[in-house]
Every structure is written in structure tokens, then in C-alpha cells.
Design a protein that fits this description.
Layout (H helix, E strand, L loop, with lengths): L1 H49 L8 E2 L11 E2 L16 E6 L9 H4 L2 E3 L4 E3 L13 H18 L3 E4 L11 H11 L3 E8 L9 E5 L9 H17 L14 E4 L3 H4 L5 E8 L3 H7 L2 H21 L1
Parallel strand pairs: 3-6, 3-7, 7-10, 8-9
Antiparallel strand pairs: 1-2, 4-5, 8-10
Length: 303
């Protein structure tokens, strides 16, 4: 037995050696796997940190009539090369009607003098078959237009700053632009014409006394608006209102009482199915604002 015990010791030592080698190999493999996983994780983290998110335009919104939203544009699509181009210029923007007009008929139906005859203080405006209101459309475009003009350095005066109020009357809208001494003024609308008709029309003032000195420059502004709408493929010329996209009007207080160059733009026909499909989209509203920005900028720079 002593001889047997002596013979077994080298065998037991070799066994422990084998086990130790195996454990070292397993530990090495484990360390390698952990190192590889750590490197991959760092690579993914680094990739996330250095990826560039898609650009977006931030807006805030409030719900208006018909469940539609009122964007408040932050920033502008205007090129930085045009920043300050309109410094010192004042532009009056009149988003026609108001979202609360539906709820106060006694106020908006009160009579006012438009410079030639009596008309109502304001109206509710029209809407699409789906219930999207003209007041909302007008307000959205006005906000985009204001942002673009301000990015160019212009001072913007709005006749209303929300879409949940009532009025103001059309006489007061004219007075706001006049009091500001605006270099240009635009009243934004969408028409409620025949369902078979489509297109835009620019309404221009006719000499009515207070506006006599600004009829000619208003016509120039109107021509610039028409050219911009066509050049930027915003909307075809109206096939039912005006001639070649221009319609002189002597029955609107906003045009009769203005003492600054001013036009009223019927951007499209809300009662026409094809026009209505465009009117409710944010992208088309922005395109209208961009065309108006182009027209106003040209008018103010060239005259």
C-alpha cells in the first residue's frame, strides 16, 4: 500500500494542473467575450451620440373652430441672406373674420359705414364641406406670413392675434393698418364661390375718397401678388372671379377706407372640392404665405 500511495501523487498533480489550465482557458474566453461586447456597446453609443437628427420646424398649436389647429411658427424658411432686407418697413396683415364670430351674430351684424354705403361689421366667413373654417385658414396663413416677414426684418402689425375672438369690424381693421403707417397691407381670405369654380383672385381698391392716393400703389401690389402666386404654382387664376386674377372692388370697407397700399386676396375657393383639399393642408398654407412674402418683398423693395 505505501508503494501504491507514492505512485498516485504524480497523477493527482497532473490532474490539478489540467484543471488549472482549463480554468485559465475558460477565463480567457470569458474575458474576450466581455471585451468584445463592451467594444460593441461603446460603438453603438458613439454612433448614437454622433448621429444627426432630421431637421424639424417647431410649432405650438391651439384648437380652433372645427377642431383645426392654429400653428404658431417658430423660425422662418427665409434665407439668412435676406435677414434685415425689410428693416424699417411696416406690413399690416389682416386675417379675415374670426373664429368667435359664429357665436356673436348681434355684434358682427351691426351696421358700419364702408365709405360708400352701409355693410355689416363683419361676417363669419365661409367653410369647406368638412367644416374647416375660413377664419382658421386665414389665421394660419397670417401667422406664417408674419414669421417670414419678421425674419426679413419687417415690423408686422396684425388686426387680430388669436382665432377665438369676435371681430374686429372691417372699419377697425382698416384703421389698424392706417394708424401703423403700413408700407403695405394684405387682407387674407378664402372665397365661398360656386362649387364649380376654382382659383385665386386679388381684390384691389377703387378710388373712394380716403383711399384715392393709394389706389395706384395698391394695383402694383396686386400685380406682384398675382405674379408670385403664378410663379410659385400656388393656385391657378380664378375662373369665375375677376379678369386675369384681378378684381377691383368698391363695396369693401377694408379697401375703401385704407390710406396705405392694400389688397385683399381670395386665395382659393373653399366650396370647390379640389381647392378645399389644398386649403386644409399645412404645406399649402405655407406656400401661400411664401408667395405673399415674395410679393410684399418685391413691392417694398421695387415699388
Amino acid at each position: 500500500m505505501p508503494g501504491h500511495q507514492h505512485a498516485s501523487r504524480p497523477s493527482r498533480s497532473r490532474g490539478w494542473l489540467t484543471i488549472s489550465v482549463i480554468l485559465l482557458l475558460v477565463a480567457g474566453v470569458a474575458i474576450g467575450l466581455l471585451t468584445t461586447r463592451s467594444t460593441a456597446t461603446k460603438s453603438r453609443t458613439s454612433s448614437k451620440k454622433h448621429s444627426t437628427p432630421a431637421p424639424s420646424r417647431t410649432t405650438t398649436s391651439s384648437v380652433g373652430p372645427g377642431g383645426s389647429s392654429s400653428p404658431t411658427p417658430v423660425g422662418s424658411a427665409t434665407s439668412t441672406s435676406t435677414a434685415g432686407l425689410l428693416a424699417g418697413k411696416v406690413v399690416a396683415i389682416d386675417p379675415g373674420h374670426n373664429g368667435g364670430n359664429f357665436g356673436d351674430p348681434s355684434f358682427i351684424n351691426s351696421p358700419i359705414w364702408n365709405g360708400r354705403a352701409t355693410e355689416t361689421c363683419d361676417t363669419t366667413g365661409t367653410e369647406t364641406d368638412g367644416g374647416y373654417t375660413e377664419a382658421q385658414f386665414n389665421f394660419n396663413v397670417a401667422q406664417y406670413l408674419a414669421a417670414d416677414l419678421e425674419a426679413k426684418g419687417a415690423k408686422v402689425v396684425m388686426t387680430r392675434t388669436t382665432n377665438d375672438g369676435v371681430g374686429p369690424c372691417v372699419t377697425q381693421r382698416a384703421a389698424i393698418g392706417n394708424a401703423a403707417g403700413a408700407n403695405a397691407a394684405v387682407s387674407i381670405h378664402a372665397d365661398g364661390g360656386p362649387t364649380s369654380g376654382s382659383g385665386f383672385a386679388v381684390l384691389e381698391p377703387v378710388a373712394s375718397g380716403p383711399n384715392d392716393s393709394v389706389v395706384t400703389p395698391s394695383q402694383s401690389l396686386g400685380t406682384d401678388v398675382r405674379s408670385a402666386f403664378l410663379a410659385q404654382n400656388v393656385e391657378p387664376i380664378s375662373d369665375y372671379d375677376g379678369i386675369d386674377g384681378i378684381q377691383p372692388r368698391d363695396d369693401l370697407a377694408g379697401l375703401n377706407l385704407t390710406t396705405v397700399p392694400k389688397v385683399l386676396v381670395e386665395c382659393a375657393n373653399m366650396r370647390n372640392t379640389s381647392d378645399a383639399a389644398l386649403i386644409v393642408t399645412d404645406s399649402w398654407q405655407r406656400s401661400v404665405a411664401q408667395a405673399l412674402t415674395t410679393a410684399i418683398t418685391k413691392f417694398l423693395m421695387v415699388g
